[in-house]
Amino acid sequence: RYLLVFDLDETIINENSDDSIVRAAPGQALPEHIRQTFREGFYNEYMQRVLAYMGDQGVKMGDFKTVYENIPLSPGMLDLFQFLSKNHELFEIILISDANMFGIECNLRAAGFYSLFRKVFSNPSSFDKRGYFTLGPYHSHKCLDCPANMCKRKILTEYLAERAQEEVEFERVFYVGDGANDFCPSVTLTAADVAFPRKGYPMHRMAQEMEKKQPGAFQATLVPWESAAEVARYLQEVLKK
User: Fold this and answer.
1) Which of 110, 158, 230, 235 is most deeply buried (CB count within 10 A of its CB)?
2) Helix (H), strand (E) at residue 134
3) Which domains does the chain carry?
4) What residues are labeled active site?
5) CB of 186 within 8 A of CB of 6?
6) Quick count: other Cβ atoms within 10 Å of Cβ 39?
7) Binding site for Mg(2+): which residues?
8) What is the pTM for the complete model shown?
């Protein structure tokens, strides 16, 4: 039994969904005074302001839903998901994303693959009485490398511990991601595990840098991908062994 962990933005989907929803804003753009409030490491707070602005502009649930449903999957992701659908009894699949629950559900249901995931970890989101789209932080943590609202390493470590208590032990962990916040959990992977960073994205670059500075410190096998079909082929080979 294998655990397969996915990220969403620029991994499953070929865009950053937080940027995508700006398409629902008037003129498909944000005013400068909102954009200037962005601070590194506090993206979740920034998005709360973006959503409040969009609510003020009359952007409704249906408008957001339409945008999320139309965000394209990354190259080869359809192949990978079809492969996983055929072999779903061999993989336990979870999603850890710094996007939001509503957007993820809209996108994956539209693509037809929401049911593949045993669990989705993301920032809580809902629509308030005014019909405004609201967003919260996922949790708090002490990791210095991650944004204030989410450390994926903490989520993955806790999930593995919880499954171990339920007497589920995984032979190997596979992690598919792209960002710096995907690098953090991938550092905890063992030599039996595989990290699939999207080629040329921060997770890939950071793993390469770590390997240069401290050879052997990054333990997982590194398999970069441009098309997720490459991930499917790799997993296919694993199943043959």
Assistant:
1) 235
2) strand 133-135
3) 2-14+72-240 (3.40.50.1000), 18-69 (no CATH)
4) 7, 9
5) no
6) 10
7) 7, 9, 178
8) 0.96
